[in-house]
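INTERNAL AUDIT FORM
Audit reference: QA-55
Scope: verify that the stored structure record matches its stored sequence.
Auditor: D.O.
Record contents follow.
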Amino acid sequence: LMIVINTDLRDHARYNGGDVKFNGLLWQKHSSIRSVAETANFRCVDTKIWAKSLKRNVYRYSFAYIQFFQKADAGEFRSGRGSVTSTFAPDVWLLESGSNRRDSSGFVFRDAFHPEIARRCLEQLTVPGDLVVCPFAGSGTVPAVAQLLGRRCVAFETDQRLKPLIDETVTQPERFPAFLRLLDPSARIDVGDGRRRIRMAR
């Protein structure tokens, strides 16, 4: 099973490597990923939409696709639980904030995804002790959530600038507001700017 989270459309200016002829173009990432997956004999078995905000943004789309792929010869799509949980079931997941994450040195990563997404997917599709492989660690969301849920995780990231942030996300998830509900379901969430440490109720 492979899970891919990607913004539907993005301004190419952030990803064109300085080639200005691509500025202003839109790249349909979810379509490209599905095409690549199908050439590797994977089929898309489910799709969710992550709504990042209900506020209108004229500069970029405020949603992303969460696509679930399974080997075409793997049989029926099944979850680790055997039944669909109430949090996993909706086709649209409204999870605001959590996309920007700042490490203790001030470096900001703006493409993180909400840890609640990882929680819903791992609780629905795996069981404690399962191995989760994350080929693009980014800010460390998947290994951090996997550890909190008792799953093993192997993660990879080529951007060395992200190593301190990954380490802090895994070892100190309480520093980041988006993890607060995951760590303490009864806690109130105060998003703020993500720079202050959150004190957890004991």
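Auditor finding: record pair retrieved intact. Strands lie at 2-7, 42-51, 63-71, 92-94, 101-102, 108-109, 131-134, 152-155.
Action required: none
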